[in-house]
Design a protein that fits this description.
The protein has 13 helices and 8 strands. By secondary structure, the protein is an alpha/beta fold. It has a single domain, classed as Alpha-Beta Barrel (TIM Barrel), CATH 3.20.20. It has an 8-stranded parallel beta sheet with strand order 7-6-5-4-3-2-1-8. Strand 5, helix 7 and strand 6 form a beta-alpha-beta unit. Helix 1 packs across helix 2 and helix 10 crosses helix 13.
């Protein structure tokens, strides 16, 4: 699976301060470690960036490109900042993100063909987030057709089903799994992408990685092409590289509801089984799901 490192994010106090003060050192450390850990892209999340949007994005892109050759995924809701960054990307970039909402169609989507970039296209539309797999399918068919008319081929579209926190709506996890299996038929040649950390938002800090890693295996089984992840989660990276087949196989067995002898499992294995059961909707989510 293609991994996009998420850690260059102004929600981080250290990164936010570095951007405001134009201090390259925290940026360098974050970029170098994510690159070393094997990320395929780096996500540069500057949020809405209301103050000096063009200059801020230009500085960040130039700074990041001093320390890595990885392609960049530019993450902002400000089209002025987005265009400023796209202009100076050395490699084919990703616009993160656009959607079927009218404003996004008018301001964000046209930037992708203008700068020969790929685009993360979410299932969101003017009505908000579709409630199930079929509604997601209808929304993305319409949005992808619009993108095609703008000159964006399916091969440059990365479809984001929009992953909600499991603690907010557990049922949406199964709807997500259903939808990603539909994508190859809905938009042949397009890729699927998700913000993996959204899944565990609101969960206890020490358990967020477990949720994210388990779900990475699950969506990988169903054909997910890429995910925006923590570039510092070395266990997740090892799983993605195929270095822990025993964990992957155990998660698959839990997905298939195989008769697993719980008493024979090590603690870590038991945690992955219980987490899979929660994400499949077999047991109710609570912050203490491992204790049940």
């Amino acid at each position: 699976m293609i991994l996009i490192g998420e850690d260059l994010n102004v929600m981080s106090k250290e990164i936010s301060r570095a951007v405001k003060e134009r201090d390259p050192e925290p940026i360098r450390r974050c970029v170098v470690e994510q690159t070393h850990n094997g990320m395929d892209y780096l996500d540069l999340n500057v949020g809405p960036v209301a103050k000096n949007p063009a200059e801020t994005m230009e500085w960040l892109v130039k700074t990041v490109q001093e320390f890595t050759d990885l392609p960049l995924c530019l993450d902002t809701t400000n089209p002025v900042a987005m265009e400023a960054g796209l202009k100076i990307c050395k490699k084919k970039a990703l616009v993160n993100s656009a959607s079927g909402a009218s404003e996004s169609r008018e301001t964000m989507l046209p930037l992708a063909p203008k700068y020969s970039a790929g685009v993360v296209l979410s299932v969101m539309n003017d009505a908000g987030l579709p409630s199930d797999a079929d509604e997601r399918a209808s929304s993305i068919l319409d949005s992808a057709a619009f993108a095609n008319e703008l000159g964006i081929p399916n091969e440059d579209i990365w479809i984001d089903p929009v992953l909600l926190p499991v603690g907010v709506d557990q049922r949406q996890v199964v709807a997500y799994l259903e939808f990603i299996q539909m994508i190859p038929d809905l938009a042949p040649g397009a890729k699927s992408i998700c913000g993996l950390s959204n899944l565990s938002y609101g969960a206890p800090r020490e358990l967020r990685g477990l949720l994210n890693r388990t779900f990475l295996v699950m969506i990988g089984r169903y054909g997910q092409d890429s995910a925006i992840v923590s570039g510092f989660d070395k266990e997740l990276i090892r799983i993605n590289r195929g270095e822990t087949p025993e964990i992957v196989n155990l998660i698959y067995r839990a997905m298939d509801e195989d008769d697993i002898d719980i008493s024979s499992l090590a603690q870590k294995e038991l945690e992955y089984v219980k987490t899979t059961q929660v994400l499949m909707g077999k047991t109710l989510y609570s912050h203490s799901w491992l204790e049940v």
